[in-house]
Design brief:
alpha+beta; elongated; 2 helices
């Protein structure tokens, strides 16, 4: 093998090796709304819906409904296959919440029994 061929092979390896070893790390993707929503408090923005907490185990709690301390409820949640709605079940109701926005610090939804009302929440109290 001559020097020219050896240099050509070495150059090719140096150019290709970084492209092969670089891969996109999708394990830390936080863009999934279903993950963003979970395991943190979502504070109602003065609309009387109470503060929400969706737990990763499929349960939730809502506290201070209608801005009344101690007026709370809880239940279970499950994502619909569409990924934009949750089935919410409590002891007294079964509703669908259609999410209009889910971001790191903001979320909003319209409940199936009030489809024209959109309720807004943030991760910080107003």
């Amino acid at each position: 093998m001559n020097v020219k061929n050896t240099m050509l092979i070495a150059l090719t390896v140096l150019l290709i090796l970084p492209a092969i070893s670089c891969k996109k790390d999708d394990d830390n993707n936080t863009d999934d709304p279903q993950d963003i929503l979970l395991d943190k408090w979502w504070y109602n923005q003065g609309e009387g819906r109470g503060d929400h907490y969706f737990k990763s185990d499929g349960t939730f709690e809502v506290v201070d409904v209608n801005n009344i301390p101690g007026f709370n409820y809880d239940g279970t949640w499950e994502w619909y296959p569409s990924g934009d709605s949750m089935l919410i079940e409590t002891n007294s109701a079964q509703l669908r919440w259609l999410f209009k926005e889910i971001a790191e610090t903001d979320m909003s939804y319209a409940p199936s029994n009030e489809p024209n009302n959109i309720y807004h929440f943030k991760t910080t109290k107003n």
